[in-house]
Amino acid sequence: IMDRFRMIFQYFQSNSESVMNGICGLLTLASIKMYTSIDFSCPCLPQYNMAYGLGIMFVPPIALFLCGLILNRQSLVMLEEWSRPQGHRKKDLAVIRYLCSSIMQRAMVAPAAWIIVTLLDGKCLICAFSSSMDPENFVDFASASPVQVQQLLAKVPCKDEELMRNNTSRKAVSRYLRCWSQALGWSILLILIVAAFLTRWLRPCFNQAALLQARHWSNYIDIEQKIFEETCCEHSRLFAHKCILHFFESMRQEIELHSFSLSREGEGAEEDQGLLRGITDQDQVNKLLKMWYYEKPPLDVSRATQRHPLGQETSSLPWAHSPRTGSKFPQHTDV
Amino acid sequence: MDKFRMIFQFFQSNQESFMNGICGIMALASTQIYSAFDFNCPCLPRYNLAYGLGILLVPPFILFLLGFVLNNNVSMLAEEWRRPQGQRGKDPAVLRYMFCSMAQRAMIAPVVWVSVTLLDGKCITCAFCTLVPVETLGNASHPSLSQGDMKRVLARIPCKEIYDGQELIANEVAVRYLRCISQALGWCFVLLMTMLAFLVRSLRPCFSQAAFLKSRYWSHYIDIERKLFDETCTEHARSFAKVCIQQFFEGMSADLVAAHCHLPRKAAGDAGEATEKLLGITDWDTMNMVLKSWHRCKPPLHLHPPALPKSGLCCGGCQGRHYQICKTSFLLPRAQCWAVLWV
């Protein structure tokens, strides 16, 4: 069993970064898929356009960013490391900073993808800013009254409107805004890629040793936590095993005390008799099951190891303590 | 394949990851159900609101309950909650932890359903189409209708084919307006839920981390203890059955020898292990007798120690624990037993 655990841990040690990169990629794909599957419908009303357009552009990225933080396991590790009392182990702020920056970088990918896709598509910006266009530049709108102009400009994003279907000015406004939107989208994409490139390329030139240290210790904290959880699982399994054996043993002793059966003979002779643990009767089995529900044994296996019949060398577990220990002998209640 | 097996084993061994997997599957299932569902707005004044809100709120409730049903730990929580205290104290923090973790996982599918419904917009369009502000969106020049007529006309907004109020308020305008409101609500809901989840997750390590570790350990312990107890009981049952059946065959064999109903066919010099295992039951009649006895008169659930074989034949009320008593009471009804079995 330990071999298996070791293999699993080695796998995750080498690939915990890959797992998180994978999650980041999945979230990005999910955001793009969400954008294409949600029907974008601009309200085409003067007061609502701006709010709707900017809302669609900025609210989902915030939600995606928070999702990215939640799904990342390292954020919990970092928070624990940050909020723990110092104790015997000093806290290294460089490690916490490294963790924080790596978490933020991964969490920012999906929102950035959403914003870029939105801008490249253009519908959001057209919806948001069509009302703020200058009507003088467009033939049909220049001749209308101010109130009407607002209404008409607000209807630009809606191609199906009867008034607007073949209006050349609408198409002009639309094209103009889409051009701006795409320019903005491509520029943001270029800036982000250049920034990422520079960060990765120039980082080794500054403080590489400190970086290696921070990365090593952040990895260490992560693995230490995983191994602690796994050890706790193993321990609770052993604890439960001992507790149940102790329970069966104490039931057997009680039955021997109270009944007249001749079960002492032939004890331990056969393997099956050993597995039966002295419980060889329908009533005894029923009693055992009832006791298990009505009076669970106390969480204390230190006595079990001392009284083990075959004298196996199981030392008293150092962590064997329970919230409440019952030190008296199990009370037998006939229900 | 090795790597896949390791990953699978890791997920199986880690109960929490397994539950996360089920959670994700239910969320995907809820989106699939929504897209497969054929939404039919009734387009009648009083029914619209009921239908729309029903589609918005009833399936999430069902999905929430389903999330609890599919979670194996529910019975564990109920058991731990209801058991008598006995010698082991009950820790309410552990119960709270188990309930919270189950509730959190069960909430994901309903939240996904509500978000998808709001972002799609059909439900809100159906439910609130009668509340569209006609004064601001519609044609001011249109002669006003009575309340009832207005409502009837507006209720038909989601059904484009039968909509007859184009002069009052254009269908596309109303639909766009309602869908915009619906999507705004949807995104606000999504943002609120993610913020809540983020706060819950990030504030917990800052407060009561030690208590959390304790509750988590003991809730895992209870789970593992229950599984191990079931395994031990199964093991015990298997041994019990094995010994019971063995004793039954030995008893039958001893009885046949004692009653001299047929000569034991033990051939001289044939001392193989197989012969011993046959226990003297070596012909068609005897085996049939054994099988009939097994069917008509199963042995009591009471194993005798190996030194004292008991009779394989039980006759009515002989359920006693003491061999001596059984032996005396056998003398009389034995003839009857044999009569029954030879039939």
From TrEMBL, chain A:
<keyword id="KW-1133">Transmembrane helix</keyword>
<protein>
    <submittedName>
        <fullName>Calcium homeostasis modulator 3</fullName>
    </submittedName>
</protein>
<dbReference type="GO" id="GO:1904669">
    <property type="term" value="P:ATP export"/>
</dbReference>
<dbReference type="Pfam" id="PF14798">
    <property type="entry name" value="Ca_hom_mod"/>
</dbReference>
<dbReference type="GO" id="GO:0005886">
    <property type="term" value="C:plasma membrane"/>
</dbReference>
<dbReference type="InterPro" id="IPR029569">
    <property type="entry name" value="CALHM"/>
</dbReference>
<dbReference type="GO" id="GO:0005261">
    <property type="term" value="F:monoatomic cation channel activity"/>
</dbReference>
<keyword id="KW-0406">Ion transport</keyword>
<feature type="transmembrane region" description="Helical">
    <location>
        <begin position="20"/>
        <end position="38"/>
    </location>
</feature>
<comment type="similarity">
    <text>Belongs to the CALHM family.</text>
</comment>
<feature type="compositionally biased region" description="Polar residues">
    <location>
        <begin position="324"/>
        <end position="335"/>
    </location>
</feature>
<keyword id="KW-0812">Transmembrane</keyword>
<feature type="transmembrane region" description="Helical">
    <location>
        <begin position="183"/>
        <end position="202"/>
    </location>
</feature>
<keyword id="KW-0813">Transport</keyword>
<keyword id="KW-0407">Ion channel</keyword>
<feature type="transmembrane region" description="Helical">
    <location>
        <begin position="50"/>
        <end position="71"/>
    </location>
</feature>
<feature type="region of interest" description="Disordered">
    <location>
        <begin position="313"/>
        <end position="335"/>
    </location>
</feature>
<keyword id="KW-0472">Membrane</keyword>
UniProtKB/TrEMBL annotation, chain B:
<keyword id="KW-0472">Membrane</keyword>
<comment type="similarity">
    <text>Belongs to the CALHM family.</text>
</comment>
<dbReference type="InterPro" id="IPR029569">
    <property type="entry name" value="CALHM"/>
</dbReference>
<keyword id="KW-0407">Ion channel</keyword>
<dbReference type="Pfam" id="PF14798">
    <property type="entry name" value="Ca_hom_mod"/>
</dbReference>
<dbReference type="GO" id="GO:0005886">
    <property type="term" value="C:plasma membrane"/>
</dbReference>
<protein>
    <submittedName>
        <fullName>Calcium homeostasis modulator 1</fullName>
    </submittedName>
</protein>
<feature type="transmembrane region" description="Helical">
    <location>
        <begin position="49"/>
        <end position="70"/>
    </location>
</feature>
<keyword id="KW-1133">Transmembrane helix</keyword>
<keyword id="KW-0812">Transmembrane</keyword>
<feature type="transmembrane region" description="Helical">
    <location>
        <begin position="184"/>
        <end position="203"/>
    </location>
</feature>
<keyword id="KW-0406">Ion transport</keyword>
<dbReference type="GO" id="GO:0005261">
    <property type="term" value="F:monoatomic cation channel activity"/>
</dbReference>
<dbReference type="GO" id="GO:1904669">
    <property type="term" value="P:ATP export"/>
</dbReference>
<keyword id="KW-0813">Transport</keyword>
<feature type="transmembrane region" description="Helical">
    <location>
        <begin position="21"/>
        <end position="37"/>
    </location>
</feature>
